[in-house]
Structures are given as structure tokens and as C-alpha cells.
Amino acid sequence: MSSPGAGKTTLLETTIKGLKGRFRLAVIEGDLQTDLDAQRIRALGIRSHQITTGTVCHLDARMIARALTDFPLENLDLLVIENVGNLICPASFDLGEGLRVVLCSVAEGAEKPIKYPVMFHKADIILVNKIDLAEASGVDLSGLISNVRQVNPAATIFPLSCRTKDGFSAWLDWLQSSLSARSTAALVRS
Amino acid sequence: MHELAIAVSILSIAEAKARERNGCSIQAIGIRLGEFTNIAREALEFAFEVAREGTLAHNARLEIEVVAMIVECVVCHEVNHPERTLCLICAHCGFPLKVVSGEELQVDYIELETEAERLAWKEYRYKQMC
Known about the structure:
The structure holds two protein chains of two kinds. By secondary structure, chain A is α/β, with parallel strands linked by helices.
């Protein structure tokens, strides 16, 4: 989840490329109109399903349940749901997700976390994107991160840039080890 | 305007319960709404009035109990009610604050009228008129 233009689809593309086919992925995209994002994911050889909400500002659990008929979950290691770009409404809807990742970009300014505290508070992981633009945007990165901490002291934070790949490996390593740990745990259980 | 989707969900929860208990109409729905949610009370009340049309709750009142946001320090257990800018770091010891309440969105109670009650009421009114 993030505001529009923070880089959710670019983050997904960069992450998919970084995982190099090591995990079985699928993506559900949410937007008001167009299937442009689903096409971008499909271009990388990953299954994707576009939900167009029309005028609705968020995804809800019923929309996901309908989309899941396209995605047999037992054949997947990771299902990513990219919500509608919006820092308000999506925070109120539980989609049955195992992990909430919120992305914010440096170019949006340093105050977004404290202006939209519910969204940032509910996140497990917060990715601060476009750190390469900090100087050009006149934004103090450490100020932004301390604003994130103010509303969510327990979140894991990764400052990164999907464009220059600065800081990206920390996020990718974390994701890979979490996915491996989950599949090992599933093997042990079975 | 995500409150409309929430009003529709509240109504479907209430209608399912009403059918389970053989209710023929819903008189009131009580909900608990936390302060620390992105749900506006006035918008929810307006959405409820629109969404209740054609449901068992078409005459129902929506009774909203607003739950205050309370935070507690995980280390020194100082309890607070944050106002204005939210800061979830303890002012005393610098450790994280836990949100104890304020994130609620729950259907708390439903007032139903059963078919027998409706008939009894009708009969009572009829007798009064005679």
C-alpha cells in the first residue's frame, strides 16, 4: 500500500527480477481503471490479475475472494496484493494478508507518516523509496524515518531506491529469508 | 467514501444474525468505532441511511459508541490518551507505546423484532383504535 506514484509497481517489478524465479509468485493489482499494472507484471512472466474498482477507493476482502478463483493458493509461495494508491481508505480493510507492507517515497515529503498515522501504524514493513531523490526533493531522510518511527516504533524499515538499487538488497534478502523460513516451516509441519 | 462499503458490511452481518434468530425486522444496530481508524462517524451515519434501504434494517437506528484511543507504554506502563499529533514513543522512557484501544470496528448488538412481536404489537394498536 502507498499513495499513488510512490512506486508500488516498480517495487514489485524490481523485486520479481531480484528473486530470479526462486519462488512461485502471483500478483493481484487494484486500480480504479486500466490493467496497465497487471500487464507490467505479466511482461515479467508472472501471473497477475487486475481488479478495477471503478470508483471505489480501496480493495476489500470480497474482491480478493473473487480474484482468488484465478489463483490456486497451494501452488504459490507468495501472493502479493497491490492495493489502490491511497493512504487513507485501504488501511481500514482487512484482506486476509499475512504481512502488510507500506511504501512511501522521499519525494512525497517527510510528514506523510504523521499525517496518515493509521496507514503507517498498521504496517509490518515500511519501505522508504526514491532515496536517490532526497537531496533534489529537499527532504531530510532521517527526519522522514523518525516520523515513521513516531507512529510505528516496531516496524522494520528499509530505505531504498528501486531505480539505483541503493539499499535494495537488504529488502530482497529479508524477503527471501522470510519466504524460505515459511516454506521450511510448512515442510516441517507436513 | 469507504464508509459505504463498511455500512454494507455492517448491514449484512446484522441481516445474517436477524435471519438466524427469525427476526422480521431490525430496530437498531449498535457498533463500537475506535477513534484511531480512518472511518468518519458522520460519513458512516450518512452511508448507513442510504445502504439500509430494502434491507431488514430499513427503519433501524445506527447506535455508534466511539471508543477513545488509549496507549500504554510496554515498559513503564504509563497510560495516555493521545491528542493532536500522534507519537507512539513513550515521553518518559522512550520505549514503544502499545495501542490498547481505539482501533475497534465491531458490531456490538442488534435489536430485533420477531414475527410474533410484530403481530402482538399490531393487535395492541388495533385494540387501542377500537
